[in-house]
Write a structure and sequence with these properties.
This protein has about 575 residues and is of the alpha+beta class. The protein has one domain. It is about 40% helix and about 15% strand. It is built from 19 helices and 19 strands. The chain has a 7-stranded antiparallel beta sheet. The chain is globular, with a radius of gyration of 24 Å. Bound molecules: glycine. The site of glycine has 8 residues, from loops. Pathway: Sulfur metabolism; glutathione metabolism. One of its GO terms (molecular function) is leukotriene C4 gamma-glutamyl transferase activity. Belongs to the gamma-glutamyltransferase family.
Length: about 575
């Protein structure tokens, strides 16, 4: 080789390398600036479309699909499968979720792809011989799993509203599972913390187990078994998951660990299109999730309960503001416990709960001088006619189609069982049923007959994917994980924008509080209340419980100029992107 040719090759090689480095840096810079803007409470703005999700890789996949001409539905499907790879603790295909859809023309729809109890499930399946609840059984291991709904949900969503080809939308997730992705610090910490659980429930081994060294930020996580599952879903759609190889792996896993999900349960699973709940708040139309989630009804009840009060005059997290919101929350969660359950099995008094007069009336007996003890608050009575870890993402495309989607395998890393051969974690969603009247679930929520276990029934949820309209136009796309705190986090984010005029990022960053009737206490994030506000409220009988964080809201606000302004939650690795 001549000296000149060698030099030219070296030059072009180093130019190519410099280009690769530049691209890497641009990507790193984008995420860095995103992290900075989150911390500084500065919203990012995009003109043609935006995605906000729990993981930078999933957000990047969604933005690529939008840039390729995909609509919000296409981006949603791609982000959902990408999260199954890069956010296995919650974004998993072994779980389920809910979504709200609003087309650019204003068509509204919602989908319930919540898990179902297996056909062999029974009301007392988590009680011992004395009738006492065996609390771990609904939370950990094979018996805690409901029949997964995510793949059926994504297929049904794509069939109705998708534009790009299905395979094109699953492909990025397949690539991420095959080639691997670098885990974040938060993920490394959580994987290390749960090593014993993974070993206990996966005696045949799983990719999440590290034998000698600990997980560290930046480690490459390659998921070969999951990649094969995604390939089958990519090529065969719903049958790639609910039948054949993957269904066999799930049923074999159930047999090994004493779980109940059968081949028939998998084959019979169908997602359900449902009519969204519609409410209003200070001139905004609230479009939100109906049962099987309690989230939408509870959110509208909360907004109706506080609408008569001058929150903006009092100020964000001022004592009067907090008092009114907490008293509303106490009453609404009492209703949730008694009245809400799977509408296919239980007559939910939806119309009654959503009446403005009812919710305003519920607030009539609260006393400015003294906290109402939860023991004195019961669910409303109606004449019957007949006889946290979850994840959320928001997407808007260039035409204004929007999706708000919350999805979960219940607590972080679900039941800790990774289906051998198929490579994904199963949910522990059975714990969202009321395993026994009055016995609290993982989130401390109690329930009764409405949410009792029955074969093929869906367990009650708090997930609250929500879209707001103003004057007939898209105004906000919002939602969050957080178990029982989902409803109150969405509530506060909406109030932060509408009453306190915050931009999207500030509204997401603002510190939150939460009351859920029982236990009778208000959970607060550090610095949510000033010491003076807290003392004033304590003097009235309110008790406070410090929690490190509440909610991880990912949301998009449409500004007056029609720009998409994002809010990615700084409490996690959440990332906004767009173009
Ligand atoms: N698994 C939490 C919820 O659905 O509310």
């Amino acid at each position: 080789m001549s000296k000149w040719l060698a030099m030219a090759l070296l030059l072009s090689f180093s130019q190519a390398n410099a280009q690769i480095e530049k691209e890497k840096n641009v990507k790193a810079f984008e995420f860095l600036s995103n992290a900075d803007s989150k911390k500084a409470g500065k919203a990012l703005e995009f003109k043609k479309g935006a995605v906000v999700s729990a993981h930078p890789e999933a957000t990047a996949v969604g933005v690529e699909i939008l840039k390729k001409g995909g609509n919000a539905v296409d981006a949603t499907v791609a982000v959902k499968f990408a999260l199954a790879v890069v956010y296995p603790n919650a974004g998993n295909i072994g779980g389920g979720g809910f979504l709200i859809y609003r087309s650019a023309k204003g068509e509204l729809n919602s989908m319930d792809f919540r898990e179902k109890a297996p056909a062999l499930a029974s009301k007392d399946m988590y009680l011992d011989a004395n009738g006492d609840a065996i609390s771990e059984k609904s939370k950990e291991g094979h018996l805690a799993a409901g029949v997964p709904g995510t793949v059926a949900g994504m297929v049904a969503l794509h069939q109705k509203y998708g534009r790009l080809k299905w395979a094109e939308l699953v492909e990025p997730a397949y690539q991420l599972a095959t080639k691997g992705f670098k885990i974040t610090k938060q993920q490394a910490n959580e994987l290390n913390r749960l090593q014993n659980k993974f070993k206990q429930f996966n005696p045949l081994g799983t990719v999440f187990i590290k034998q000698e060294v600990e997980w560290a930020a930046g480690d490459l996580l390659v998921q070969t078994e999951l990649a094969n599952t995604l390939k089958l879903i990519r090529d065969k759609g719903r049958a790639g998951f609910y039948e054949g190889e993957v269904a066999n792996f799930i049923v074999e896993e159930m047999k090994r660990g004493g779980g109940l999900i059968s081949k028939e349960d998998l084959k019979n699973y169908q997602a359900a299109w449902r009519t969204p709940i519609i409410g209003s708040y200070r001139g905004y139309k609230i479009i939100t999730m109906p049962p099987t989630s309690s989230g939408g009804i509870a959110l509208v009840q909360l907004l109706q309960s506080v609408e008569a009060f001058p929150l903006s005059k009092w100020g964000h997290n001022a004592d009067s503001t907090v008092q009114v919101m907490v008293e509303a929350e106490r009453r609404v969660y009492a209703d949730r416990a008694k009245h809400l359950g799977d509408p296919d099995f239980w007559k939910v008094p939806q119309k009654e709960l959503l009446q403005e007069a009812y919710n305003k009336g519920r607030m009539a007996n609260f006393n400015w001088n003294k906290a109402t003890p939860s023991s004195e608050v019961q669910a409303g009575e109606f004449a019957r006619k007949e006889s946290e870890e979850t994840t959320h993402f928001s997407v808007v495309d260039k035409d204004g189609n929007a999706i708000s989607l919350t999805t979960t395998i219940n607590t972080s890393y679900g039941n800790y069982v990774v289906v051998k051969g198929a490579g994904f974690l199963l949910n522990n969603e059975m714990d969202d049923f009321s395993v026994k009247p009055g016995v609290p679930n993982y989130f401390g929520l109690v329930g009764y007959e409405a949410n009792a276990i029955a074969p093929n029934k869906r367990m009650l949820s708090s997930m609250t994917p929500t879209i707001l309209e103003k004057d007939g136009k898209l105004a906000m796309v919002v939602g969050t994980p957080g178990g029982s705190t989902i409803i109150t986090s969405v509530f506060q984010t909406i109030v932060n924008v509408i009453d306190f005029g915050m931009d999207m990022q500030k509204a997401v960053n603002a510190k939150k509080f939460h009351h859920q009737w029982l236990p009778d206490r208000t959970d607060i994030e550090p610095d949510a209340l000033t010491p003076e506000v807290q003392q004033k409220l304590e003097a009235k009988g309110y008790t406070f419980y410090k929690r490190s964080s509440i909610g991880r809201v990912d949301a998009i606000l449409v500004t007056k100029k029609g720009i998409y302004q994002t809010g990615a939650d700084p409490r996690g690795d959440d990332t906004a992107g767009g173009w």
